[in-house]
């Protein structure tokens, strides 16, 4: 009798494993599916002042409505959406970003181009490229993640405007920032 119970449990475990690894199951094959914007869980602020070290408060005078906010001094991004109740806004996600050799001027921009994967201006393969500005000198400013997780060298001789994110954070911006999404750069 015990042998039949063990056999039955083994069969159930095998079928559960097969169902979990099925190719039509989201995330099968070890590749995470992109997180749709409506499924991004907002970062939780601290209970004291609405911000903490991991989730600092949205900078003042950073616009309103749906937008990406990039702070030059904090080297950080915020993804801001309308609150679910339609009253106000909420920060969906905030995380560090790493500058290259040239910073964009503070101001209001919008996403002009997106590329799934391309070579970066520093020669490193990058993914989740979200471009928001090209200046008069032809320097292109945008957010991306190096496929190998490397960061730009701000002391390099080449003048580049790539703002790098971690490969863990870049899918959230990629899903959030469509062409036309406002990007606000603050000092």
UniProtKB/TrEMBL annotation:
Residues 21-65 are annotated as: Disordered. Residues 1-21 form the signal peptide. The keyword NAD does not apply. The keyword Acyltransferase does not apply. Keywords: Signal. One of its GO terms (molecular function) is transferase activity. CDD domains: YkuD_like. InterPro entries: LD_TPept_cat_dom. This is Secreted protein. It comes from Streptomyces xiamenensis.
């Amino acid at each position: 009798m015990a042998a039949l119970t063990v056999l039955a449990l083994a069969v159930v475990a095998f079928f559960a494993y097969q169902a979990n690894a099925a190719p039509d199951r989201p995330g099968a094959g070890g590749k995470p599916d992109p997180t749709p914007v409506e499924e991004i869980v907002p970062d939780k602020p601290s209970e004291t002042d609405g911000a903490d070290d991991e989730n600092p408060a949205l900078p003042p005078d950073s616009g309103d409505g749906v937008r990406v906010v990039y702070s030059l001094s904090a080297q950080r991004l915020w993804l801001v959406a309308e609150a679910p109740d339609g009253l106000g806004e909420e920060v969906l996600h905030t995380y560090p970003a790493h500058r290259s050799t040239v910073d964009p001027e503070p101001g209001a921009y919008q996403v002009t181009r997106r590329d799934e994967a391309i070579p970066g201006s520093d020669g490193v393969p990058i993914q989740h490229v979200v471009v928001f500005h090209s200046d008069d000198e032809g320097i292109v400013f945008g957010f991306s993640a190096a496929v190998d997780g490397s960061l730009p060298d701000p002391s390099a001789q080449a003048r580049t405007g790539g703002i790098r994110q971690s490969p863990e954070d870049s899918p959230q911006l990629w899903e959030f920032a469509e062409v036309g999404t406002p990007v606000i750069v603050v000092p």
